Amino acid sequence: MGKVSPRRRRRASNKGIPKNAVIVPNVPMQDYCSQIPGVYYHFGKLEWRTTCRDPFNCSKRSQRTFGVRKYGFYEAKMMAEVAAFEWEKHRNFVLYLQTASAGNAVPGHVHSPPPAPPGSPQYYPYLPYECYTYVPAELESPLTPHASMEYYNNAASQLSNI
User: Fold this and answer.
1) What's 65's DSSP letter?
2) Which of 7, 43, 58, 85 is the most exposed place for a label (fewest CB within 10 A)?
3) pLDDT for 80-89, tens place per residue?
4) Which pLDDT belongs to residue 155?
């Protein structure tokens, strides 16, 4: 009797890049992985895919694809991550409404969605102005020296001297 082949494992996030993968030029290897759950790159078809579960029937799954040839590598990745973020936000809201209608919801509590991907409108890479502990004195005034009329008048006269 022959050996039994091992069962195939399900797709894991750390599976790596297949040996027969089509690699896009000028794209580093770490960019083929996404940190957003449900977003992955299909190496055979050169597309980013995002999957989500239906909020009413968890066994039903939906999928959207974004082709690299149509959108470009990074644009397709960003679109897939934004789509996954929107789906997860919608799913969490529907689940909250279901628990609220059943009377089991905690007042004022909504499931927090995963962090927004870079490039989406909800992503802010910088802290708000109030969060900085040190603010230079010249930024405290409502008008900076560059916003005054004298600065613009002097700039025009300097350009005419050239």
Assistant:
1) E
2) 7
3) 999 999 888 8
4) 60
> Can you give the pTM of this predicted structure?
0.54
CA distance 78 to 148: 40
Length of the chain: 162
Cα-Cα-Cα-Cα torsion 23, 28, 32, 37, nearest 10 degrees, comes to: 180
CA dist 5 → 2, 8, 85 (Å): 9, 9, 38
- Say which residues have a Cβ less than 8 Å from residue 142's Cβ, sequence separation at least 6: none
Q: How far apart are CA 160 and CA 149, in angstroms?
A: 17
Which residues, given as ranges, of the chain have pLDDT below 70? Answer: 1-15, 103-162
